[in-house]
Design the sequence.
């Protein structure tokens, strides 16, 4: 009877090593993809943190970089010792712009924000010195005077005390003193239909341009930083 020759079991070491290497490669690829995704997500989050969405633009008295109007060198604050508007030093003062933007003035305010009569130059300058803005017109033109008044009222009414439908004289003086008033008045005799004035700044228009008026007000209302310029 012949003997069956038993074969030695095949060496499985190489196969196991190959499988192990394959598993390591797969795990390595999965790890690499995961790390790549995490890195990209981190960059996105970092960028989102570095450049957040801008906050809403404030609507009350923004300060744009634009400086509209013509700049007139300050003529100072003369007049603090004067009381009489007929004093030749007041009545004959040579302002360097028309309407005036600085110089001789008396320590007087006006009782209303919207005026049907012209404001004396010595009062105009005092209002500007405190940071107020003047919108003046030289025409019989309800569309211009009414348009300027509407713009001014939009600003002024932000300060109307609760429960009141109109300003008292005390309210107006308080607004004048803190430089938050936008005043409207006729100004006969000037070359243009409209003049917008702030301290040392003058812009003239020959038709109503609400955008230009609003830009001017926003730039200079309550702005006393340039009183020495």
Sequence:
């Amino acid at each position: 009877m012949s003997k069956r020759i038993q074969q030695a079991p095949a060496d499985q070491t190489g196969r196991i090593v190959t499988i192990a290497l394959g598993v390591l490669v797969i795990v390595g690829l999965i790890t690499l993809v995961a790390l790549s995704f995490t890195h990209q997500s981190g960059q996105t989050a970092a960028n989102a943190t570095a450049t957040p969405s801008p906050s809403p633009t404030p609507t009350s008295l923004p300060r744009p970089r634009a400086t509209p109007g013509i700049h007139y060198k300050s003529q100072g604050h003369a007049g603090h010792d004067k009381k009489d508007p007929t004093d030749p030093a007041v009545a004959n003062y040579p302002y360097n712009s028309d309407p005036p933007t600085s110089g001789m003035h008396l320590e007087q305010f006006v009782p209303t924000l919207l005026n049907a009569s012209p404001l004396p130059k010595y009062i105009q300058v005092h209002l500007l010195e405190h940071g107020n803005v003047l919108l003046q017109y030289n025409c019989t033109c309800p569309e211009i005077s009414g348009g300027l008044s509407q713009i001014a009222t939009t600003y002024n009414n932000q300060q109307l005390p609760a429960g009141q439908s109109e300003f008292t004289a005390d309210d107006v003086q308080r607004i004048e003193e803190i430089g938050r008033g936008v005043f409207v008045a006729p100004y006969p005799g000037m070359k243009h239909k409209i003049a917008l004035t702030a301290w040392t700044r003058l812009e003239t228009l020959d038709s109503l341009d609400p955008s230009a008026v609003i830009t001017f007000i926003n730039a200079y209302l309550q702005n006393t930083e340039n009183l020495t310029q």
About this structure: The first helix runs from residue 13 to 50. The two ends are 127 Å apart (CA to CA).
